[in-house]
Here is the input.
Amino acid sequence: MKYQIYKVALISCGVVFTSNVWAAQNSLADLSEKQRLERLERLISSDVLRQQTEAMRSLREEISSLRGQVEQQEYELESMKQRQRSLYLDMDRRINGVEAGSRNTATFTVPVPPPNTTATNSAVPVVAGDVDGQEAYSKAFALLKEGQYKQSIQAFEKFKKSYPSSKY
Here is the structure.
């Protein structure tokens, strides 16, 4: 009797296990090719989706970094422009100051009498005029600044002929 109980228990366990295996096989066998393909696509797409998400995150970080670099370069460029503008205005101011100073000192000259002259010979102030061409050069340069290029060229050529040994 004991032996028969073991036999029945063993057979029933075998039936249960084989039915589970057979049910699993049937569940895969019941799936059509289309369903199997969809199941595989879902498995693969979840991996692809994860990779795409990672790629998107990486691209966003790179774009953010590039935007930061662009902003920094725009700031540096604007600083350089401002510095260049400041230097140009400073240089222009200095040149105008030198030109104005030269005009004031070269307008009139008084000759110094030689040491052995008598009191009867008095020194008469003489207007030196435009000895070195400063005034002519300034006028030609002013025409150039105003955008009157043809007149400026003519004025510079006249200056060159009139004052060939000028420092300007």
Remarks:
- The first strand starts at residue 108 and ends at 109.
